[in-house]
Each structure stands twice: as C-alpha cells, then as structure tokens.
Amino acid sequence: MTVERLTLAVITEVFHDDPGGRRLTERLRQARDLGATLAVLPELPLDRWVPATKQASDDDDEPPDGRRQALQSAAAAAAGIALLGGAIVRDPLTGTRHNTAVLFGPAGRVLTRYRKLHLPEEEGFWETYHYDAGDQPPGVVTDLGMPIGIQLCSDLNRPEGCHQLAAQGAELILAPRATPGDTYARWQLVLRADAVTSCTYVASANRPGGSSDFPTGGASLVVGPDGTVLLETTEPLALVDLDRNVVRATKAEYPGYLPVRADVYARGWATLARAKPGADA
C-alpha cells in the first residue's frame, strides 16, 4: 500500500485512568471520524509517569502483548485507525524491562516495536531505575503507505537515530515525549533541527501536565521537513495533513541532496565503540 498524503492525529492525553480502554477508543474514533488514518500517543500512554520517583514496581511492566498493549490493540481495531502507543515491556528471554513504543495497524496487529535507547537520570525522570536502554537501531515501517520511523523522547537529542531512519527512507518520524513545560523552547529547537537535517516530518505527542504526570507538560509538536512548525498544541486532539511530495522536494534541496557517508561514520563509531565498549560517546 502506498499513499501520497496521510492525516495524522496527535493526541496530547494519557490513559492510565482508563482501565477498560473506553476513553482511548472514543478518542481514536473521534480522530478517525475527522479523517485521520494514524494516531500518535505520548510516551507510556497507559502508565502513570512512573519515573517521577526511583521506586519501581512489578505492576509497571508487562510481557509482550500484555494488558496495556492489548488495550491499545483493541482500541485501534475498534476505531479502525493505526496507532503508535507503548508500554514498559519485559523481555521474556532476558527479564530486562524496556520503554517500548508499539505501532499497531488499523486492525490492531503489531507492526513493529522500538525500545528507547537514551534514558535520563535526574529529578522527575529517574528512568534508569525503571527500565533498561534498548540495544537495537531503529528501522522503517512501510505498511501504512508512508515510510515511518520511531524515536522516543530523549532519543531526539542524539540525532543519529533520525538521520539513520532518513537514510533508510523514512518520511515521517514519530517521537512520543514526556518533557517538562519549562524546557519546551529547547525541545522545539531540537525537533526542528532533527526535521531539517533528516528532511523528514517529525511528529511528537507530549504528556500533558497539571496532574499526576508532573513534571511533564508543554506542547505537542509536528515539524515539516524544512523545519516549519506545522502544529503546536496542548489540546487533547489535533490533526495535521502530511504530503510525501513535500518530503521528496525537500530531499532534492540542500541539505537533503548531500550524500550520507555511512561508511565513514561507521568507521568512526566503530573506533569509539572499541575504545569505550557499551558506552555512549
């Protein structure tokens, strides 16, 4: 399946107080009725913001296809819309826990999973106490007509992920966030830079503030491949139209036409990896 245009629903709302998934399903149906074919939720949308403290609980994680993921799958299928959600997923082989974005198709089938690579460790964001960093590079999904990649929040501050996705053909990067309102200006700068340097749409739904989700807050954001802010909102639901032709045109201009020197970068990163195995440079 291919499409030239895609209508994206950005949902600035979390659903940890929606145990049966009814409110999530209604929100997705509303998005579909307005013309959206894909919706993106904030980071860990069916969890309270557990990294607000260092105290971890076994109730916070689940196996692949666990309760929170099943609710999101069922909601996507009931509304007939693709959905990027997520959960803290426990690896059945290693027992490690990962902050995992999960992309569901409009029939509720899991299209891909992505584990967050870069974990903050500071007041209000004690993520290293709750899950482990991922160890797999991001990939591109083509099932929804527009090539899509995924990043999670702090991954955006290491733009290698966005650049690698763009080099694989991604035209839209979905990036759920949980960021404080008082750092929004910096996050907007980062997302715009990611979009410009990767020549892709970058769409980020943020967790709302003013509730048990403190210290999160600030706008959700969609940026065009030329760095133009297309959507900036704290409303629970907002839609934006994305055009693949805009991406193609941007990639034909500067800096899009610059070669991706993957071989050179790979040698440089390999040298660092040998010097500091397992460490972030």
Task: Give the arrangement of secondary structure elements.
Layout: E1 5-11, H1 22-33, E2 38-40, E3 61-62, H2 67-79, E4 82-90, E5 97-104, E6 110-115, E7 121-122, E8 125-126, E9 148-150, H3 160-167, E10 172-174, H4 184-198, E11 201-204, E12 220-223, E13 229-233, E14 237-243, H5 244-251, H6 262-275
Parallel strand pairs: 1-2, 2-4, 3-4, 9-10, 10-11
Antiparallel strand pairs: 1-14, 4-5, 5-6, 7-8, 11-12, 12-13
Mean pLDDT: 95
Largest sheet: 7 strands, mixed
**Count of extended strands:** 14
Distance between the termini: 39 Å
Explain this structure:
By secondary structure, this protein is an alpha/beta fold. The protein contains six helices and 14 strands. The protein has helices spanning 22-33, 67-79, 160-167, 184-198, 244-251, 262-275; strands at residues 5-11, 38-40, 61-62, 82-90, 97-104, 110-115, 121-122, 125-126, 148-150, 172-174, 201-204, 220-223, 229-233, 237-243. The strands form three sheets. Strands 1, 2, 3, 4, 5, 6 and 14 form a seven-stranded mixed β-sheet that branches. A five-stranded mixed β-sheet has the order 9-10-11-12-13, with helices on one face. Helix 1 (22-33) packs parallel to helix 2 (67-79) and helix 3 (160-167) runs parallel beside helix 4. It is globular, with a radius of gyration of 18 Å. The model has no long low-confidence stretch (mean pLDDT 95).
